[in-house]
Design a protein that fits this description.
This protein is α+β, with helices and mostly antiparallel strands. It has four helices and ten strands, in the order E-E-E-E-E-E-H-H-H-E-E-E-E-H. Helix 3 packs across helix 4.
């Protein structure tokens, strides 16, 4: 059965044997494992391979139902632990949010380079256009050794000064 309507998988039961052709011409045969919104998961199973392929429904050119739902397809496919998947998703989102938070907004390239260099040694974050080092030392614009401010007069900022000067020196010699 060729299904070319917008909801191609509507009349195909999970577990049915299918053949899918993508708009790029790739052909995949397997079992319909899941259909959620516009995301389709196809279980691939052979003597040597047990895997999943995820496709957006909008990227699919043609679907053919090859057979009815197999009573054995679920126990032959690898099990998916929803809690583990949720945990991995949360970890990935957290890592991406951390990566994004380390990118300065509307700051010069040299400021980002200085941030990256300092953050290799000290925990840093952006507070507007100010680099905040270990939550108390500020490196303010123009991002030179003279632009370091600390509420504690006894704070040793020598290493931060050296990092700034070295980063600027490397930038100038490029």
């Amino acid at each position: 059965v060729d299904l070319k309507s917008k909801r191609m998988f509507q009349s195909i039961a999970v577990g049915s044997s299918i053949s899918v052709e993508s708009k790029s011409g790739e052909k995949i045969e397997g079992y319909l494992f899941s259909k959620t919104g516009n995301l389709i998961a196809i279980g691939i199973q052979s003597e040597t391979q047990k895997d999943f392929v995820l496709l957006k429904e909008s990227e699919i050119k043609e679907v053919k139902k090859l057979g009815n739902q197999s009573p054995h397809y679920k126990k032959n496919l690898p099990k998916v632990d929803p809690e583990l998947m949720k945990k991995k998703e949360e970890e990935s989102l957290s890592q991406e949010m951390e990566r994004i938070s380390r990118i300065g907004v509307n700051v010069p390239k040299i400021a980002q380079e200085i941030f990256d260099s300092i953050s290799k040694i000290y925990p840093c974050k952006w507070k507007g256009d100010v680099i905040l080092v270990i939550d108390r030392i500020e490196v303010r614009p123009q991002y030179t050794a003279d632009d370091i401010f600390s509420p504690d007069s006894g704070t040793n900022t020598e290493l931060i000064v050296n990092i700034i000067n070295e980063t600027r020196r490397k930038k100038e010699t490029k």
